[in-house]
Please model this.
Amino acid sequence: SIEYFWTIGCLFVVVAAYATLHSTDGQGGGNWRAFIGICTIPCIVSLIVGYCYVPESARWLSAEGQSAQALNVMREAAQANGHDPLVIFPANIRIQQEESEKDASIADLFTPTWREITFRLWGTWCFFSFGYYGTLLAITRVFEKHAEPSDDSNSASYDFDYGAIFLSSSAELVGTTLVILLVDEAGRISTQVVCYSLAGISVCLLCVLAESNTSRTLLMALGFAARVFEMGATCTTWVSTA
Model:
């Protein structure tokens, strides 16, 4: 469900771009400094909220010898989930401090024990990131508006079909919901194969048809489908490998 917040962030960026970069004359431009400033607001809010309200890791506290604080964190978590903390963690309970583990290095990833899974995970994340962000860039380019240079400028301006981009971004809400409902029944591998395949087909058709005189409605539908399946696939990959 954390992916819902990712999608809300994507929608926020589109709205912020429309408010600060869009121009009514179709010449683009706008105030990019205001756009950057608005986009930093959620980061600052998250920093403050996280610092003030998100508890420290109980395991880290235990490893650092702060067993009492770790126990308090777990009791607060139990209470937040509707359980009696003193029943789950009685007053006489004590947390056993974990033994310090051997410091690891990046070289350990290439030992025989971890080498195969390391390369598999690297390959999976490399290609799924390429597919996800490539889809975003492709949709943005398809709905890009290129204006000719004005008389007093030597450079061209750019504007975008923000409505179409916003609609395609909202498709991630659908993709995330579908995966939540279906992944346990369909299976993680099957879900990834189907979603990645349909996402690739949708993006391919979108890019090919964008070069011809294709209706905006059809392009928007293909962009929406691409984001639905790409988000569904990447969510499943995240759950399976993170």
